[in-house]
Amino acid sequence: MALVPCQVLRVAILLSYCSILCNYKAIEMPSHQTYGGSWKFLTFIDLVIQAVFFGICVLTDLSSLLTRGSGNQEQERQLRKLISLRDWMLAVLAFPVGVFVVAVFWIIYAYDREMIYPKLLDNFIPGWLNHGMHTTVLPFILIEMRTSHHAYPSRSSGLAAICTFSVGYILWVCWVHHVTGMWVYPFLEHIGPGARIIFFGSTTILMNFLYLLGEVLNSYIWDTQRKLPAAQNACGHSDSPANVIFKD
């Protein structure tokens, strides 16, 4: 039998993100008081995305529980909308942005932490909170992808959406620099305009790649698992593969 039902996992993950966000916002750092506040950091934006996503997951589970066996077509229609929103958020935002934050942060950190996370921040942000923002995002989103199939949007619309997000954030970072005269991330101060253009272009390409990676990974997991005789429909949204969780 399953060690932990997927619904319980989602509630636990949502509560962990709420705790991380509350603890992060409670920290009195100089950067939080400047233009843009916490919203100029992709890490914080990603935490909000993940919290909203898992909130929608929990809401979907509750709606499924309440509508099960009711035969109310309007409730079922609303449930399908919630499932579609949940799937869209994972495909376009939660997976690519979450993986991007984890990968880029730790790659730059390993090269030179002062370029992305100066040692001075250790005086404000405890180690567990740093990992909550920059590490656990990845296993949490992989757990969600593993426990429920998610229907991806058309590739063109999905890529257009992640490109819009990427370009929008880059423009936001540039605007913050225009207003304050300082770049959000320290390493941007040490590279020239040409290198910044290359970096911003590369991050947009990477975001698109991560979107495609999520699409492939989602298909691989569920195309493989459909072949297992032990597969059972346990999440209760419908009889579709979107709600299968596998048990030991």
UniProtKB/TrEMBL annotation:
The main place the protein resides is membrane
Q: Origin organism of this chain?
A: Ursus maritimus (Polar bear)
Q: State the GO CC annotations.
A: endomembrane system; membrane
List the InterPro entries hit by this protein, alphabetically. Answer: ADTRP_AIG1
Pfam families xref list: Far-17a_AIG1
Record-given protein name = Androgen-induced gene 1 protein isoform X6
Q: Which family does it belong to?
A: Belongs to the AIG1 family.
| Spans traversing the lipid bilayer | 42-67, 88-108, 128-147, 159-185, 197-217
The superkingdom listed in its UniProt entry is Eukaryota
Please give the PANTHER family that the UniProt record associates with this protein.
Answer: ANDROGEN-INDUCED GENE 1 PROTEIN, ANDROGEN-INDUCED PROTEIN 1-RELATED
Instruction: Tell me the name of the encoding gene.
Output: AIG1
Give the range the annotation lists for the signal sequence: none
Enumerate the catalysed reactions: 13-octadecanoyloxy-octadecanoate + H2O = 13-hydroxy-octadecanoate + octadecanoate + H(+); 12-octadecanoyloxy-octadecanoate + H2O = 12-hydroxyoctadecanoate + octadecanoate + H(+); 13-(9Z-octadecenoyloxy)-octadecanoate + H2O = 13-hydroxy-octadecanoate + (9Z)-octadecenoate + H(+); 13-(9Z-hexadecenoyloxy)-octadecanoate + H2O = 13-hydroxy-octadecanoate + (9Z)-hexadecenoate + H(+)
Membrane protein topology class: Multi-pass membrane protein
Q: Which UniProt keywords apply?
A: Membrane, Transmembrane, Transmembrane helix
Q: Where in the cell is it found?
A: Endomembrane system
